Amino acid sequence: MEIAVxxxxxxxxxxxxxxxxxxxxxxxxxxxxxxVSADRLIDGVWGEQPPAAAGNAxxxxxxxxxxxxxxxxxxxTPHGYRLAVEPEQVDAHVFARLAPTDPVAALRFWRGDxxxxxxxxxxxVRLERLRRQALKQRLADELGKRPVLGEVEALLTADxxxxxxxxxxxxxxxxxxxxxRALEAYESFRARLADELGxxxxxxxxxxxxxxxRGETKRGNLPAEVSSFVGRESDVTAVRDLLRSHRLVxxxxxxxxxxxxxxxxxxxxxxGEVWRVELAPVTDPAEIPQAILSALGRRGHAVLxxxxxxARTGLREVIAGRTMLLxxxxxxxxxxxxxxxxxxxxxxxxxLTLLATSREPLGIAGERxxxxxxxxxxxxxxxxxxxxxxxxxxxxxxRAAGFVLTEENTPAAVRVCRALDGMPLAIxxxxxxxxxxxxxxxxxxxxxxxxxxxxxSRTALPRHQTLRAVVDWSWDLLGEPERRLWRxxxxxxxxxxxxxIERVCGADVDTVAALVDKSLLVLGPDGRYRMLETIRExxxxxxxxxxxxxxxxxxxxxxxxxxxxxxxxxxRDSDQLVWLPRLATEHDNMQAxxxxxxxxxxxxxxAALVARLGWYWWLSGHRPEGAQLAVExxxxxxxxxxxxxxxxxxxxxxxxxxxxxxxxxxxxxxxAAQRLSAGRLPEHPAxxxxxxxxxxxxxxxxxxxxxxxxxxxFDDPDPWLRAVAKLFTSQLRLNFGHSAEVAxxxxxxxxxxxxxxxxxWGLGFALSALGDMAAAQGDFTRAVSWQREAIALVxxxxxREDLPQMVVKLAHQLWLAGEADEARATLKQAxxxxxxxxxxEVIASVAYGTATFARMEGDLEEARRCMDAAVHWMRHPSALxxxxxxxxxxxxxxxxxxxxxxxxxxxxxxxxxxAVESRDSPxxxxxxxxxxxxxxxxxxxxRAAFLLGASDAVRGSRDLSVPDVDRITGEARAALGxxxxxxxxxxxSGTTMFTAAELV
Length: 1000
What we know:
Blueprint: E1 3-4, E2 10-11, E3 14-15, H1 19-30, E4 35-37, H2 38-46, H3 54-68, E5 74-76, E6 80-83, H4 91-98, H5 103-107, H6 121-142, H7 149-158, H8 163-175, H9 179-197, H10 203-214, H11 233-245, E7 248-252, H12 259-268, E8 273-278, H13 288-295, H14 311-319, E9 324-329, H15 335-348, E10 352-358, E11 367-371, H16 384-387, H17 391-399, H18 410-419, H19 424-433, H20 439-444, H21 449-452, H22 467-476, H23 480-489, H24 498-505, H25 509-517, E12 522-523, E13 529-530, H26 533-545, H27 549-570, H28 576-585, H29 587-599, H30 603-620, H31 623-634, H32 642-656, H33 663-677, H34 685-696, H35 705-710, H36 719-735, H37 740-757, H38 760-776, H39 780-797, H40 803-816, H41 820-837, H42 840-856, H43 860-873, H44 881-897, H45 901-918, H46 921-937, H47 941-955, H48 963-987
Parallel strand pairs: 7-10, 7-11, 8-9, 9-10
Antiparallel strand pairs: 1-2, 2-3, 4-6, 5-6, 12-13
Helix pairs in contact: 1-2, 1-3, 7-8, 8-9, 8-10, 9-10, 11-12, 13-14, 14-15, 17-19, 23-25, 23-26, 24-27, 27-28, 27-29, 27-30, 29-30, 30-31, 30-32, 31-32, 32-33, 33-34, 34-36, 36-37, 37-38, 38-39, 39-40, 40-41, 40-42, 41-42, 42-43, 42-44, 43-44, 44-45, 44-46, 45-46, 46-47, 46-48, 47-48
């Protein structure tokens, strides 16, 4: 946990020094993510004796907290303060969530007495009550598995009228063989209850008392387990509930999922007789009745000695009239015989309840299925404190003696649990390996899991001693059609729908249903079939043994190519929202097919896939991985269709723009695509757009080359390409400082084109650009409106990479429109969206926007911190000069505001020179404004006015969305007078983007 308050207060694993700071942290953490009023914080920290300037004292204490934990964000609001963390980062909130369902995991977070201030007394009482309930639930679950009497009686000392504790005390005494003391405990409680409350014990407690008087004890043969039960506490409760209302419950799931252990744990809590029958050693269905009789201790029962009496007849007589739970464990290899016996016994004994475990249902009337799911898994990137709360990790830690989770080894431990699908047996086998292998090595070697995971218990069933034996058992029980489907389906990394299975695997519906019944395929709520990773890896081995790996790879690829080729043109029209989700469901399959083609040296297939998936990668938030795959395919030797290869290079460059590729590699791919497309009229619109795109990134191209190459596309037959051409032309005009009015008119034409065809990416981009233009003209209300509509469209499409930057722009425009509170809230949304995308350039962009906000509001410390973060995230080869120039510009403004004018001069000089290299006039104009601001601070108002004129000349118009411009203009005009200001301003009218560097 980042914040721990259930005991001594800790921040990120460090103790908090000082009672006042601890109280502040506690109050903010209890309302994590919400504003806590200043009055509540002051009351909590100082109680009835607040200092004279309480508000200032609170502000100083918050500053101290920020210094103590710089990784946390404490936001100031008009009414108080807000700790910008999710509740899951605070131990109290996680504890409250887990306590009702997983008391063992919850209680791990409780480290000692609560140190809550008096104003949080209600929270303390609530949490203490939850802790008490969790303790009672844990003791109830552990009753009969270990001695719990001492702990129960300690709790009773504090609350002697808690009837549930009295019941636990009586059961614990009964289990220890002290029936007399159990009866005394009841009588003592009954008398105390009558004296103090004038009440009688509940019917449930009186029933327990009656059973003790009668000497009723639990009968059966359930094994005493030697290992703890981890991670399925809620499943035990659910199975027991089913057994109360259904006479036949079957636990189904793949081998190693924990069905047997769950059946024993569930049975242990059922009153009366509970008998378990292990059917794994039985090979003949006719022997099932005798196996049940043996488990019941009736192997030599008299009814079997009479002539003509069969084991089945004897079994019916033995169970007739008895109230019991019978557990039939491991039925799958005798499924028909087990079903027949179960049906016969249920009819013969009305008070009999059956709990079966099997890899497939028994398939008889009245059966209630309970799928035994894998253990819950932590997300990738989980911290040690949160990962250990997940059942899969808890099991690994429990079974791996001496292994301790740390921040350093947590990623590897999480990888192990996720690679093994949260399957208990596989995790236990992996835990055994941790005695001899570091967890990082184990995680790296799980690709060879069947050879690695062989260290099971020597006393376990043979098929449970190695991971391969577990899966071999399932394979051996199948017919050839089912085996063929298993091994062929294994190539579907992301699962598949029924139509794809039928086409690619050559299987029919009945065979698919058979594998679902046998827990080898899982049908999800989305209608897709999936395999656990271990099952899939086994299938791939069998596919190779059958000599079908290559033929099935091509079969999967043909199906995916057909889908992608059909989808690609629709990604640029009104059906975009239909086809993007369809492709997204096949994303894992498509990525795996491209990778498989690369590994096979099949350039034809690999290029064909990339050519049809490149635009999907751009739209769907997969630009980095798409760019990397395209680069690898482009570098493959061998022949492939020229247009496909040209598209491979094109999509390597386009996706690489925001996918982390170095600028020189992007330019190289643009040039390669051009060479392959030269002298022909390509069919794909992306290739017809290519020459203009390449010119924009070619330093050798003349400024007007882009216009000359893109304007012919205004008459292209493809309406999407016509709209894109208008959009790019508008952007080029702004970049080169042309008329803002002409650029806006062209962007509106692009907008209309995209509206006509219903293409949302283009609509969102055009609307966002029009919002920027409106802001530059000072129409901030319209800018906010355009930007909101753009964000809604981009969110609808799902282009995650573009969204955070657009939200930052909206926050900026809201601030300019005077909506400061909403601007701050919007900026927070941008930060959250950037964290979800987790791309360096996106995080950097949002950090830059946050730094700008902090500077405008006077928080220079926060501004510096955010700028350092932005520069850190963009410290890679693909960082564009535009960003480097803007970063230097903002650092210069921060340094100047802090009084470091020499440092500001260095930053602004570097900003202007870097901006000129970018050949981006708005960025050059921005850096000149920063230089003007510095000149004004150095008492050179005439030079400041001149630089403002140069900025507007380079841009082609004034940008009213730059908040410093109005202030600099006003101060310079006041110092120079109207005429002096105008004269200095006009002298710079001849400045161009190419001569701006001469001004530093």
